[in-house]
Amino acid sequence: MSEHVILTEIVDRVGVIRLNRPEALNALNLAILNTVVEAAEAFQSDPNIMALVITGNDKAFAAGADIKEMADKSYIEMHQSDWFSQWTRFTDIRLPIVAAVNGFALGGGCELAMMADLIIAGPNTKFGQPEINLGVIPGMGGSQRLTRAVGKSKAMDMVLTGRMMDGEEAERAGLVARLVEDDKVFDTAMEVAQTIASKSRPVVMAAKEAVDTAFETSLTQGLLFERRAFHALFALEDQKEGMDAFSNKRRAQFQDR
Ligand code: CAA
């Protein structure tokens, strides 16, 4: 059994979380849940960290929630513990999160990837919501986030049949932001995260919040939210710096934390 269920490191200004239960294809048990959210929150509280990357290994990003941990639970245990609700601590992270996804991303693995802000994957990545084969339905957001990502027809196909979708199909469907060779997935995710890390931290947070608002509200309310957030950014030194750098044909040095 892996001693550490996740591995973390900081590369420049990017916090990396690597799921590390290879013997169980990174099945998401409570230990992984707790350590992932604690690591993400710790990275966020460090003002020098600008973005996160979450990844697994070549064979599996994560093959789902840990079936063996759940199998014998009763309805009342699941309900009273509000099983899976702790993952909202991960989706509450305000820094951008890039998912670098190889191998199986099934059930909770697909759902965890979709909790990230964008997904980088390879042609051999296998996304799926196979819970139907276990006599349950997705419980970490699959029915909602997959439907928003790929539309009703394909989400129904995935959730009702449990079939897997490879990286190319996932990219065509809009689930994957960038499809790259399998062995370039992690490096590409790091490049994306490093690019984000070169921007202004509060502006990046505002941008994430604005895009996320599109999923939560009407167009009129969303446009108002965006415009007000845009106005508020004029309180930042980074806005002055960014616009001055453009006018003076130099590279902006963002400082606000
Ligand atoms: N939970 C617990 N253990 C898991 C697991 C999971 N989700 N997925 C894989 N494992 C374990 C296997 O039991 C096996 O352990 P042992 O060696 O102790 O037997 C080990 O990981 C390797 O797995 P396989 O031998 O099955 O590997 P494979 O290459 O033959 O098959 C696979 C790979 C097709 C992904 C297969 O492991 C599989 O179907 N896994 C389950 C996928 C699944 O149903 N996911 C949904 C889980 S429920 C969920 O996620 C609910 C939710 O909405 C959050």
From TrEMBL:
Task of the protein? Could possibly oxidize fatty acids using specific components.
Domain of life of the organism encoding this protein: Bacteria
For this entry, the protein name equals Probable enoyl-CoA hydratase echA8
Q: Which organism is it from?
A: Enteractinococcus coprophilus
Main EC class of this protein? Answer: lyase
Q: What is its EC number?
A: 4.2.1.17
Q: Report if keyword Calcium is assigned.
A: no
A molecular function annotated in GO for this UniProt entry is:
enoyl-CoA hydratase activity
Family classification = Belongs to the enoyl-CoA hydratase/isomerase family.
Q: Which UniProt keywords apply?
A: Fatty acid metabolism, Lipid metabolism, Lyase
